[in-house]
Amino acid sequence: MQQAPKNIYSRPVLDFITVSTEYCKLVENLNDTTLPDFIRIIRPMLSMLYLKATMVQDYEEGEGYNTPAVTEEDYNYIRTHIHDLLGVDDDFLDTFVEDFKYSDQPILCTVSENLADIYQALRDMVETFRGGYEDAMTVALFDTLESFRYEWGQKLLGALRALHQVQHSDNA
């Protein structure tokens, strides 16, 4: 079991929450964003998000459960807007997904689904931190970082790799 941070308001935790909040704001407000602008902003943000998640070293599980803040409609709104923005560049092949162990072919993934999955994990945590209850914040931080380790960290890297390709392809 990992140790609790001496302070839930430590610099690494606050930095992670800050970048998470900015990520959520970005993907919630894509109405007037062009594809080049989106890629120019999202790539460094994903890199920063990955860095800040890895900087939170000490956290404990905490007791309790937090009610998810993101609804299915919220999730689909984010996924659909990103999909519409990326168009044909939404799809990419990945070998670092669970289904790959049952196949000898790369699995078709979408940037929009990966980014929506990241949004869901981060928005739930950010909303809990907005509530200000330290026990709930401890649970939310643990859940989000565990999810990072086993789920959305790989999804972030896959999306980042695909977006790198889009930005630096001949079609961009």
CATH class: Mainly Alpha
CATH architectural type: Up-down Bundle
β-strand percent reads: under 5%
Computed Rg: 16 Å
Explain what you see:
With 172 residues, the protein is mainly alpha-helical. It has a single domain (11-168), classed as Four Helix Bundle (Hemerythrin (Met), subunit A) (Up-down Bundle), CATH 1.20.120.1550. Helices cover 64% and strands 5% of the residues. It contains five helices and two strands; from the N terminus they run H-H-H-E-E-H-H. The chain has helices at residues 11-28, 35-55, 72-86, 111-131, 134-168; strands at 91-94, 107-110. It has a two-stranded antiparallel sheet. Helix 1 (11-28) crosses helix 4 (111-131) and helix 2 (35-55) packs across helix 5 (134-168). It is globular. The chain starts with 10 loop residues before the first helix and ends with a helix. Mean pLDDT is 88; it is low at 1-5.
